[in-house]
Design goal:
With 359 residues, the chain is an alpha/beta fold. It is built from twelve helices and eight strands. The longest helix has 28 residues, at 95-122.
Length: 359
C-alpha cells in the first residue's frame, strides 16, 4: 500500500523517443494530447499525438551486470512518498474545502512523482512503477475538475522521464476486474482503467505497452469474456494494457492463452507461477519456458517486463520477502524486471551487488 507521508521533491531536468516496433506507426505531429487517439494496427486515429506520446528511445537490453531493475511506487526510506485522503474525510468537506484539499494534495504528489524519477535516475534505476493512487478520489466530479486544472504542470512529465532515462508504468489495484459477472463491478473497473489512461495521457506517456498498465486476468473461468472485451476498450487503455499471471484464477498458461488471443503482452511473474504450480525451484524448466513464451507476446522483445519476488518462508509462500535471495536464471537476459520486495531500494541494491559479484 502507498504510504501517505508527504514529501515535496522539486522537479528537475528532464531522453528522445525509441524506435517504434515493426508493425506500429509512430506519431510525430504535434497535437493536444487530451483530445487525441493513438493509432493501433488496423485502427485509424482522428488526431496524431505529440512526439512525447510516442515510444521513448531507451535501450531495452539487459546490461553486463543484469537486467534493468525497477522501483515499485515508494522507497522504504522517506525519499519517495505520496499523500492520500480517505473518501470519508474528503466527503466531510464542503466543495470549496474539497477543491483546496485536493489542489494541495495533487500538487504535492506531482512534485513527488517528478522527484521519484530523479531519485531513480540518480541511482541508475531505469524503471519506475507509479502509484495507482497518484490522484486520490479522481472518480469524483470535483476531483476531476481539480485534476484538469493541473494539465500544464503534468504535461512536461513524459519528457522529464525520457530525458532522465526512466521507463514508467502502473499496476492498477487487484479489485479492477474487467470481466466480472457483475455489471456494476465491470463498469466501475472500466472507469478506473479509463482514469489511469487519462492520467497517463496528461503525463504525456506513450500509448503503447512501453508505458504499461498491468492487470491480472480477473474473474476466473471468464477468459473468453476478457478476450472479447479487450478490443472494445478505449484506445488509451487498450494500447497500454498488459496482463500478468497470478496464483489463483489465471496461471501462466491461462494468461498466456488470453494474451495470444487478445493480442496483448504478458508480464510473467515467476513467484505467482511457483505458488500456483507448486514448484520446487524458481529454476524449474517451466520458468524459462514462460519467460520465452511471454517475450513473443511483446511488440518489441526489448520491451519485455517481468516481476521478481521471493516468498518469506518458502518459494510457495505468497508473502513477499524483504530482499531477493533467489533470482531465476531465466531472468538474467530479460531487459526489464520490477522488484516486488518489501525492502524496496534495499532489495534492488542487494540484487545489484549479486549481479556485480556474478552470483
Amino acid at each position: 500500500m502507498d504510504d501517505p507521508v508527504p514529501v515535496s521533491p522539486a522537479p528537475a531536468a528532464v531522453m528522445a523517443p525509441p524506435p517504434t516496433p515493426r508493425g506500429r506507426r509512430s506519431n510525430s505531429a504535434a497535437a493536444p494530447a487530451a483530445a487525441s487517439e493513438s493509432p493501433v494496427p488496423g485502427t485509424p486515429a482522428p488526431l496524431a499525438l505529440p512526439p512525447a506520446m510516442s515510444a521513448p528511445a531507451v535501450s531495452g537490453s539487459a546490461g553486463p551486470h543484469g537486467p534493468n531493475l525497477g522501483l515499485v511506487c515508494i522507497t522504504a526510506g522517506p525519499e519517495v512518498r505520496y499523500r492520500t485522503i480517505t473518501r470519508t474525510r474528503f466527503l466531510s468537506f464542503d466543495e470549496p474545502a474539497q477543491v483546496a484539499a485536493l489542489d494541495a494534495l495533487y500538487r504535492d504528489n506531482l512534485r513527488s512523482l517528478f522527484g521519484a524519477i530523479d531519485y531513480c535516475a540518480d541511482r541508475g534505476l531505469r524503471l519506475y512503477r507509479v502509484t495507482s493512487n497518484l490522484f486520490p478520489q479522481i472518480d469524483h466530479p470535483v476531483a476531476k475538475r481539480v485534476f484538469e486544472t493541473l494539465a500544464a504542470e503534468m504535461a512536461p512529465f513524459g519528457d522529464h522521464a525520457r530525458r532522465r532515462g526512466v521507463r514508467v508504468l502502473v499496476h492498477p489495484d487487484q479489485y479492477v476486474v474487467l470481466n466480472s459477472e457483475s455489471d456494476r463491478v465491470a463498469a466501475n473497473s472500466a472507469a478506473i482503467m479509463a482514469d489511469h489512461a487519462l492520467i497517463f495521457d496528461r503525463l504525456n506517456l506513450a500509448r503503447t505497452p512501453w508505458a504499461c498498465m498491468i492487470l491480472h486476468g480477473g474473474k476466473g473461468g471468464r477468459a473468453d469474456e476478457l478476450v472479447n472485451l479487450i478490443p472494445q476498450l478505449p484506445d488509451g487503455v487498450r494500447s497500454r494494457l498488459v496482463l500478468e499471471n497470478d496464483e489463483n484464477a489465471y496461471g501462466a498458461e491461462q494468461i498466456l492463452d488470453v494474451c495470444r488471443r487478445a493480442g496483448v503482452p504478458m508480464v510473467f511473474d515467476h513467484h505467482h507461477h511457483a505458488v500456483q504450480a507448486k514448484l520446487a525451484s524458481y529454476d524449474d524448466p517451466s520458468v524459462r519456458h514462460y519467460v520465452e513464451a511471454a517475450r513473443a507476446t511483446w511488440p518489441d522483445p526489448a520491451w519485455q517486463l517481468v516481476h521478481v519476488s521471493n516468498g518469506i518462508a518458502s518459494i510457495t509462500d505468497q508473502r513477499h520477502s524483504d530482499l531477493i535471495h533467489d533470482f531465476p536464471a531465466a531472468y538474467r537476459d530479460v531487459p526489464w524486471v520490477e522488484v516486488e520486495a518489501k525492502g524496496k531500494e534495499m532489495a534492488i541494491d542487494s540484487l545489484r551487488l549479486q549481479f556485480t559479484l556474478g552470483r
